[in-house]
């Protein structure tokens, strides 16, 4: 699943206005955190994640590892914050698309 530059730019634009919904603490990518991240990706598709300063992982490492485990794409990494995207075709079927995809 590889995005074009144009698609990535559009998602970066949409992510700019999002609040951070998931925080990765000093424990890193725990199974509980990954479950929460999966839930948010399923309902929102586009999610902003912040990595704690005290953690062992850098934002880039956390983004790549989380994307691999979630089957998502890294949209961008800025400082300690990164954005992930994973399309959910079920949202389209239910007509429950996020506002930025309507």
Q: What are its keywords?
A:
102 residues; alpha+beta; Translation Initiation Factor IF3; 4-stranded mixed sheet; 22% strand
Structural overview:
The chain is of the alpha+beta class. It has a single domain, classed as Translation Initiation Factor IF3, CATH 3.30.110. It contains four helices and four strands. The protein is globular, with a radius of gyration of 13 Å. The protein starts with a helix and ends in an 8-residue tail after the last helix.
Strand content: 15-25%
Radius of gyration: 13 Å
What's the SSE pattern? HEHEHEEH
User: How many beta-strand runs?
Assistant: 4
Low-confidence stretches: none
State the distance separating the first and last CA atoms. Answer: 22 Å
Mean pLDDT: 88
The largest β sheet comes out as: 4 strands, mixed
- Spatial strand order of the main sheet: 1-2-4-3
Q: What structural category characterises the helix and strand content?
A: alpha+beta
Q: Based on CA inertia axes, which overall geometry fits?
A: globular
* CATH homologous superfamily (4th level) name: YhbY-like
CATH class: Alpha Beta
Number of spatially distinct domains: 1
Could you write a compact summary of the structure shown?
With 102 residues, the protein is of the alpha+beta class.
């Amino acid at each position: 699943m590889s995005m074009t530059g144009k698609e990535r730019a559009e998602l970066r634009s949409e992510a700019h206005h999002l609040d951070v919904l998931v925080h990765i603490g000093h424990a890193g990518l725990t199974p509980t955190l990954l479950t929460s991240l999966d839930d948010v990706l399923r309902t929102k598709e586009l999610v902003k994640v912040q990595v704690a300063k005290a953690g062992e992982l850098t934002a880039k490492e956390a983004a790549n590892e989380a994307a691999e485990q979630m089957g998502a794409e890294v949209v961008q990494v800025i400082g300690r914050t990164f954005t992930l995207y994973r399309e959910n075709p079920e949202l389209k079927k239910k007509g429950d698309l996020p506002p930025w995809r309507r």
